[in-house]
Each structure stands twice: as structure tokens, then as C-alpha cells.
């Protein structure tokens, strides 16, 4: 017991936990791989064939040597380690992802090395390193079984029966061709196949080390030495058991910041581990990842990873998949990938590509199958990385990493300093139609590798003749052979080798001693380690500068851990808005997406939890770096600059590693003879023996190192007993912690084990729950984002935020919908699952429609509700297909993914997203045809909840379609509604309108006479109105309408109630109230007016959370007030002087608040200047107070008349010289007022007197002249005649207060909308 005990207790700091051997089980013989068979069954099911015929597993179309047979874990030592239980299924699957493979003497049989990773449920990882070689099959049963299979195969494959194989067969067959021999030998084999009388049969066997840390180089060297010992002519010095026992029990993990040397069979092996303040261990050669993809492509894939997209790596070589996956994830420091991570996806787990969650997976490519044959369930959000052909496909429109070009430049320099080039890799292809984005021309994924030696050659343009040798040169340069051979080759190809010295370090001259007595292999390793750490430092320093101030925005709100964990879902723990407002503009597109990711959320959570428990290691290193950076440069508040800061610690980081490897800190015990019986440990050459389990299953009892850990363990046990009475709380707490920690992680990891359909269903069920939860969180976040802002703004004006935050949230909603629609698809069509479903729906509906029209010509589509003001507008049909057609007609959008996104945005803006999707899913026959039983869209209850969450988004107003597609043509309908009560609503003149919005104006449009329409209201009273439809480029949110006529004919006077304008695509309707006459000699004699609009909410809107509606926009001065001020009746409402002063203060305040908002969230300034409660309205009231306007039997006098007279008086006084003695500035002001008034009067536009007054106020506010003009008007003697004594204008103190208030606007740049100042150039 003691032996077993001490062996296991030492394990947490043991270098390796298990040594395992996988291969063929001679007892059970040849078994077809069940998992492959299961996969065939799934495939067949997916394609709608009868699954049972495919499920036999014995697929005769394939030659037996190519089929997949079951491998087994033949042995493992020790049997079990308690804190890292042996996962037999996973190890077997990952050691031999394709099962056993057979070869004959005619085939290539080089040993292969690959690594794998097992991620457990809690996110912790174990690494495996595998050396696979071929061993002769000695069992006669197996040879004869294979012989028989071949005879059956040859009998079967007569031409008559060559049926087309299922996609799985081709998948399985070509799986093996990846390491298949040259074509000539395989063709000879296809003829002869395997004949037990003349051929020798070989089968694959794998040696595997399972370790807690990724010491890849060390394990690779240990395993290859072990294999060499078996094949060598001379037996190794000690039995193999000694070496395995040594690495399992006697080699410790190096301590942090230390190096370790231990002994393999032939040579010593060295490894080192970074110290606590350094970046964590990463032993996979990043240089290889960079050479495979090229710096540019690698940075793009890295960006996709940061934004948690789906990343699929594709290569024929498992080790490459592992190198790229591990490379990218180690660059994420200080963040960690939080989702599904399977760098090597076994053939039997291919259905995992269906997962509707972010993932990083590696798929083995098969020789001869190209990318187009690969059926991927969803591609809308996929980053596809073809490692072998050095090219990548990127999702549409994702943001670039900040300072990308400078980052790539810096990385290239690091690579060059090690003699590597960064320009491999084809330029990335975005998934758009060819040529639609500049710079993404799909180039041939040919071998675009460049090395120093090949540079001149490429510049020469002669590299056409070098397709094959080029690779050979590269491989030689990368150091597979000596320099002489390299030079011989270069002579042959006519290349001059530049900077060979720079490459000398990289060339392994096997066996020769390098500097300092190190072998070339050690040199290579040191060089790799130095390059690795430098490349990682470059990335790490990007994050240190980007997030240098992140702590300031972490919201610490909970008093203790428990309360934080319980309320975590409701807590807001990072102030995103403030953080973004503090960042340089070019970073925002990336950062606004990134701070929404799970990895960032987890990072912030770790930060908050670090107040109560030990800091997570990555966070500790990161925080220490930020503190250090602060110490060195006390950063000025100007840190918002987006200038690139290079990494300053490249040299130090490389030196640390070099010093550790130069001076070995610890040498492990040498392998030694074990307590074995004589005769044990002998074996036949070339065969890996069955090792003696009794000596390998328990560790040594007497070594001091294990003894030390055993005492530490006893100390721990004592401590544990003391704290036993706290255990209950702790257990609860631990449970809490676990739950809380796994909160955001819908599904951490697929289980690599028995995959019965039940397990698959269970996994999919988890996906469905995860999707629903994500939908709940996202819609809530979108609501809070809008509502939060709106609540703040209820007091005033504009309530729609646009801008980055909203765009990011909507983009992530589009992504979620794509993932939901691609979950459980039967057959994939097109890149966007949602759009292809919509197209199916459209085709069906249009067919039905045609049938219906053939039967009865009346269409039966639900009409939208009408209210009084909507009488004049023909109602828009709520019609899913109509929205699709709008988007199909937009030539700006080139791809299906783009169309789906545009459709989602349009539906959101129309508040119909939930309704449309409900309608789409109501065609159940269609859903059944397109989706498997387990798909999210076929889980009734979840689907209902999902639509309900989307319905909640109707509570806010989005302009996410109008504001994004700014260049499209949009049809607008304009309806001019005259006031009903007066009979002469008809006019003989020719009306025109000009509609303006935030993005521009429509230009003047004449409305043809013949568009008078009659409508009848509920009481059948006829109403006439003028309606016209016109098309122009998207105007954005509408702000003003100019309305006028040419004063022709007899009935040239026109009393207009309001103008309605509707965007025919989004259905947004705006009402522009008028309530005044247009005509000479009536009202103020105006032939044109500028009207200010408001968005109308259709009454009777479904009860869709209307209680929390957005506050209305400001509108044109309301009819009643307008009429009362210009006193058509003279008996209107008269505000008190206090109310007037308050109104002026309020209107000026609103203008100031407007300028204090971030630019993207400001509303329309026109509304604040000329709408209701605006500056013009308030000043109009001020001037009307005590104004003697209505005279008996005389025509009405307007404020403008007073201004005109005052100006006339000043001009005459000026000519008489009365003003000469006044101070000079006053004279200047006087001239400016006269100049402005005369310019307004001489404008060609027919604006009335009130319009002119409005114009004067706007220009005065813009040019900061209002406060100077007021005293001139007050001083004018005319005031006594035209105002009563009580008038505000005659009260000195009030006027001076008003001047003070108006001066506060001077700090802001007021720009006037074009529609206001048309025809006036001042």
C-alpha cells in the first residue's frame, strides 16, 4: 500500500502521469470501427437513405487496407492516478483518430508524431504526445482475415456493382490516403491487394505519454528514443521498463523558472518552465504556425478567435492542427478561450461541426478531397483555415485588430531576425462574391512560401520552374539535413543562397556539437523557445497597452463572494460605455465587439473574484505587467492616442530562457535496473514488447523526492482535519463557485466517448438550452442598453441611440439567429441557413399565391390597422415576403449572409422580427423537411420562448436598417392633408415638397395636379388630399419638409393641416403638422413653409410592450399654439411672463445638452431650434408678449413687421447721422442687423413673415449675433407704439437676463440644416 500510496501522492508534480500503448488487440481480431459505422448511420440518416443498410460497417466498396478498424488501449501504466483519471475512450480516439491502419511492405511506413489535448468538463487540460509506427503483424488469424476480406472485396468490386458510395465512405477511404504512399505503389496494390502468401502485413501502433503540461519537445524526443531502442540492432543498455519507470515516477515537473535535465534511452533531454512573472509555458513552435499561415493570415485568425467566432482548422497532419490551435490560444494572453476546443476532431465526432456555439476545432483533410467537397453545417460565422495550402476564408465584415499593419510589421521583424519570412500564405478570402471587396482577390492557395533563399528567385519571376524543389529547399533550410546537400541542391537549381549564416543555426547537423557543447537539436530547441517567447511578447504588449486602464472600469459592487455569485447574472460588472468612450476612435469597431465576448466577461469575473481568493495566474502576470508599465511611464491623460507602442522586453524575455537552458537547475535520477526477474524485459527486435506491469504500476518507495511530497501530503491531511468542521460551508461554497464559474459556458466540451444516439441527443439538448439562454441574455442586454439611455433622456428630445454599442449588439443578434437556424439542418444549402429557409418559404408562398389568384382574384393578406390620421395613407401590408423582396432588390448586398443580416435589421426596425419568424416557423411541414428532430427550431417550447424574447425588442425603436444601408434607393409616399372643416381645401396652384432627413434631402419635387384622392372616414364624409410616391436615396430619419406652391390660378390659397411622409420599405411614418395657410394675402402671406416632423406610432399597435414606448420626438409648433400666437382668432391661450421665461431657459438648455452628448447619439438640432418648445417658439412668445397685434378693421400685424420697421428706422437714423456719436461696435451691430433683415427680405423664396422671423433667429444663433441685436430692438422708439407698457421687451432686467441666457449658446458650433437656409448666403 505504501508503495502505491507514495507513487500516487507524488503525481501532482510528476512529469508524466501515464504511459499508454494503443494498437490492435490480437484476441478480438479485426473489428470494424463502430464509431465510424455510427457516423455512417448518421450520414445515411441525414441523406434520407435507410440507415440500417449503411450501419453494417463492412463497406465492401473500399479496399480492406483502407477501411477503419478498431484500435484498443493495449496497456497503460499506472492503472490510475486519482486526480487525473484515465479516460480510455478519449485516449484511444485521440491516439489513433482514424483507428488502426494497415500497410504492406510496398508502402511507406515512416513513424509519425502528433500531440493531442483532453479538455475536461471543468476546463482543465491534459496533454498527450503520440509516436505512431508500423509493426509487422505476426498473428496468423489476422493475416488470414485480411486475406479473406481482400478476396471478398475483389469478388464484390466487379464493375456491375460499383454503386456510388455514401459520403461517409469517401470520407473514411480518403482519411487514410492522407498518409498513403506514392501513387505507383498504391496502384500496384490495388491490382494485387494483399495476399498472405507473398505480402507482409504491417499495422500501426502508438506509444503515448500523458502529461499535465505541454512539454512537447521533451516528450517527442523521449518517445522517438524509446522507439529507436526497439528497432536498433543492439539492445539498449537497460530494459525498456527502466526508462518508462524513470519518466513516470522519477522525473519531476521542473519548478517554475527552472530547467530540468533527464535521461532518455540514448541522450539526455532538457526542458524548462517559465517563472511566475513570465508568460505561461507554450512549447508548440509558433514559428511553424507563422510559416504555415503567414503573419497576416495568422493575425486575422487570431482576431476571429478573440471575437469568438467558429474556427475550423483543416490539415492532413494532426501535429499541424495542434500547433496552429495551441499557437493561437497561447497568443490570447491574458484571456482564455472559453468554448469548445478540440484541435483534433476524430472522424467519429464530425457531427460536432453542427454545434451552434463558438468553437475551435481541427479537422483532418483527406488527400484528393478539396475544400468545396467539405459539407459544413454553418458558414455565416465561420473562419476556415486551410493550413496546408496557407490560406484562410474569413466571415463577412468582421472588424480588424487595432494597429494591424504595425503589429504585422513588428512580427515580421522578429521572424526575420531568426531568418524566417512572414509573407507566406495566400491573402485571406472573405466570403463575398469575387472582387466585391478590394484586396481580397482569391489567389491560388499554391505554395506561397518564401524563405530568404527563395527571395531573389521570386523577384526574378522565374519561380515557375520550381514548384517541387521550392518545398525541398524550404525543408532543407528548416534543417532536415546538412548544409552541403543544401548547397548542392542550390547549385542545381541555380539559386544563390543569401545569408546562409543566418540559417546555419536552424540547420540540424546531426551529431555535430554546437556552441557550448550543445547538440544541434538542443540549439534548434533553444532557438524555437526564444522565437516563441518573443512572438508572444509582441501580442502580450498589445493587450497591455490596450487594456492598461481596464481596472478603472471594473465595477466592484458586491460586499462578499457569496452575494456576488448569487446575483451575478443581474450584476453589471464592467462599465462598457465609459470604457469605449475612453478609447481611440480606430479601436472602437474591434473593442466594442470584443468586450461583449465570453472570454472578456470571464477575465473581468476573475478580476472581481481576486478580491476574495487567489488571483488566477494569467491575471496575476497581466496585472503585474500593467503596474510595471505604469511605473516606467506615468501615463499622461493623452493615452487615447492610437499610436503603436512596440514591445520593449523582447531581449530580456529571450535571455531568461537562454540562461535557464545554459545552466541546468535540476537533473533527475538516471534510469536504473528495476527489481525484475531474470529473463524479463527481453524482446524481439522491431516489436514493442509487453512491459512488466508489476514494476510499472507503482512508484519507488525510497526516493527522497516522493518522500518529501508524501510528508507534505500528510501535513495537508492534518490541516484538512482541522478545517473539517468548516467543510459543510465550504462544500456549499465550492458548489456555488463551480456553478458560478461555469455560468456563461453553455457547453464547455464535448465528451469524447461512447457516442450512442442518446448521448448525441443529450448534447444537442444542451445546445438548445444554451441557445435559449443566450437569446434571453442578448435581448435583455439590447433592451437595457436602449432603455437605460432612454430613461436618462425622458426629460428631453431625441431618444434613439445609434452608434457602436447598438451595432455590436445587433450584429451579435444576427450571429445568434444564424447559429439557431443552422442547428440540426438536414442538408446545408448556401452559406446562410436563415436565408435559405426564407427562400424555401418564399418559393412555397409564391406558389400558393399563384394558385389562389387562379381561383379567386382577391388576395387575402392581413391589413394593418388604421386610425384617423392614417386614413389618408393606404395601409402597408405586413408581409414577410414583401420585406424579402425589398432586400433582394438591393444590389448593394452581394451575399446570402448579408441578405439575412439586412432582413433581420429591417424586421427589427419595423418591429416585426418576432412576428415574421413566427410566420416562417408556422409552416411546420417545411421546418420538418429542413431540420432534424433534435434541432432547436423543432423544440416547440423553446421555440415559443425564443420568439417571446424577440418580441420584447418591440419595446424600443431601432433605426438599424435605415442607418446602415445609407446608399440604397427608398420609395417615399407623401400625403398632404388639408384642413377638413373649410370647404376650399382645393387649390388650383401647383404644390411642391422637399423632404429632408439626417442623410440628405430629396430635392424639390413638383406634385402633379391629378393626384387628388378621395377617402371616406367612418361617417362617410369625403376628404380630399394630395398623395404622391417618389423614390430617392435613403434620407435617414426624416427631419423637415418644405412645402409650397406657385400661387397660380384663382384658388391659390391653401389651408394645410399636415403632411405625412412614409418610408415604404421600413414603414416609418412621419407627421409634419402645419395648421396654417399658404397663400398671398392670408395668414402671414407665406407661399412656403418649413415643417418639423415627428415619428408617428400607429395607434392600436399590438400590445407589444407599448407601455414603455420611446418618448415622442419634438414636433412642429402645434396647431393651437401657432394659431394663438399669430392670433388668427386673437382669443387663444396667452402664456404668462414667467412661463415664457421658463420656456426660453428650457429651450437653451436643450441645445446645450444636445452638444454634450456623444456625436453619434445627438438628435436633430433643427427640432431644438424650430420645433415645439424650441428656441424660435420661445422667442416668438417673448416678442408677442404685450404686442399690439389685432387691430379692429385692420390687417393683423406680425412681429416681423416690428423688426422691419425698426430696421427702417435705424437706416434712416443712420443716414441722418443720429447714430454717429454712439460707440463704434454698436454701429457695426446695427449694420449687421440691417444686412441680415434685408437679405431675408430679398430672398427669392416665398416664406411668410413668421418664416422670416424664424430664419432671423436661426441665423442669429448660428452667427452668435442674437444677444447683440436685442438691445437695438429695445432701444428703438417704435417699441413704445407697438408694445404695451407691461411687455417683457420693455422690461430692462428681463431683457438683460435674456441676453445672458442667449450668450451661453456661443460655445457651440451651430450648423443649420440646408432646408432652413436655402436661398440665403450669409
Automatic annotation (TrEMBL):
Q: What is its main location?
A: membrane
State a single Pfam family of this protein: RUN
Classification via InterPro entries: cDENN_dom, dDENN_dom, DEN5A/B, DENN_C, PLAT/LH2_dom, PLAT/LH2_dom_sf, PLAT_RAB6IP1, Run_dom
- Low complexity bias: where? 155-195, 427-445
Any one annotated GO CC term: membrane
Where does the UDENN domain lie? 53-614
Where is the stretch described as Disordered?
155-196, 422-449, 699-722, 1101-1120
Family annotation (SMART domains): dDENN, DENN, RUN, uDENN
Question: What Gene Ontology molecular-function terms does this entry list?
Answer: guanyl-nucleotide exchange factor activity; small GTPase binding
Task: Give UniProt keywords alphabetically.
Answer: Guanine-nucleotide releasing factor, Membrane, Repeat
Ranges for domain PLAT? 970-1092
RUN domain: from which residue to which, for each copy?
A: 804-966, 1166-1317
Q: Name the domain of life this protein comes from.
A: Eukaryota
Here the segments flagged for biased composition (Polar residues) are 699-712
Database matches in Gene3D superfamilies: 1.20.58.900, 3.30.450.200, 3.40.50.11500, PLAT/LH2 domain
Where is this protein localized, as stated in its record?
A: Membrane
Please state which protein family the record places this protein in.
Belongs to the RAB6IP1 family.
Name assigned to this protein: DENN/MADD domain containing 5B
Task: State the organism's lineage.
Answer: Eukaryota, Metazoa, Chordata, Craniata, Vertebrata
The encoding gene is LOC116042084
